């Protein structure tokens, strides 16, 4: 029997998209925001602990680059797999499990007795970290009211970015007193958040509708949503599919946009992770003390947080394409200027501008864009593969920088690498981005594919 009009997919999705932002929305959002912040904190431990790890295990620059990249190898696997798992089994439980995974291997890293063991635990930790990114942003995109989607997804990215300066600030206090292993002790906290998620978070309404669980979806909408005084859409949207598929990402309608996203993610990952992994060590090599290098890194990366917060407002006003393209290009230009100076004030200013436009404006917008471009059945798969390609950049860049530094070349080459990849990402954004501003996720699917699909099984069969 088909669902009644009051409980049908379009009615529930209309209420979900047009609802006011309620206290229940806020509680859910704060919970996932905390988990995403901790993910950013744990990922960005690398730059804080790397000087101590180098000294403890007597590493060369090349070996240190391998240590940095091990995390991203794990994250690549986690991101690629988790999206498909989430599209098949839901958002809630996989999201909670990802936090528990990287918390458990944080504890294992505390007791690593050799460099090989530490690299192994860091790679396994990366699986949970990469998986978390693939699941959390589609979850946010699917439950928040449509007009809040862009700002709230980019704000979540800002929370993730806050993990970097927070890691630097905590490291400044903890590492000199207790050593680098103490940072991994702190990184076990996410297991508590994971347990809380299992106990309190609702499942994605869009996932439930796709699985035909109309009563469960209706119950969540009744508790979650409050009318914002707008007309509920009556058209049907997306055909039910049991699970996501990578084939959707590379199908004719999506191929151009998918290639552009993957390329931009490689560049964004190379910028973000290469910089966060090596900046404290590069500054220390320029004669800056270890504590000051942590402080400078915290200031520079905080600018990225500010950029991410601003991005949420800009993408609703001027669109995703302009913010992505302009942000990446300006970041690249500031990187080139950054490499020409060693004066403290200029280093902080130019570094802050580069991360403001790169990791902040463009990087956060890129994840918001990737989390809304694909249909519900493949949304987490799409975000997961985007995140996986970001980890490819994170995998390659720290190793490349390690070899560059080992060659004792000019420090300018370090910044030139980051400048070039940012400009290339900006060009890709300007020529191959589908503008999603002002559309629901179902409308985006309809416009890209040129079809009117359905979320109602009865309509799909008729």
Major beta-sheet overview: none
CATH class: Mainly Alpha
What's the number of helices? Answer: 20
In the CATH hierarchy, the architecture is: Up-down Bundle
Q: Give the SSE string.
A: HHHHHHHHHHHHHHHHHHHH
- The structural domain count equals 1
**Annotated CATH topology:** Growth Hormone, Chain: A
The radius of gyration is: 22 Å
Helix content: over 70%
Structural class from helices and strands?
mainly alpha
Gross morphology is globular
Report the portion of residues in β strands.
under 5%
- The CATH superfamily name is MFS general substrate transporter like domains
Low-confidence stretches: 229-242, 453-462
In round numbers, the mean pLDDT is 83
Termini Cα gap: 13 Å
Structure in words:
The protein has 462 residues and is mainly alpha-helical. The protein has one domain (5-461): MFS general substrate transporter like domains (Growth Hormone, Chain: A), CATH 1.20.1250.20. Helices cover 78% and strands 0% of the residues. It has helices at residues 9-18, 23-43, 45-57, 61-89, 92-110, 115-143, 149-178, 181-186, 190-200, 205-210, 214-224, 246-249, 255-285, 290-317, 320-338, 344-373, 379-406, 411-431, 441-449, 457-461. The model is unreliable at 229-242 and 453-462 (pLDDT under 50).
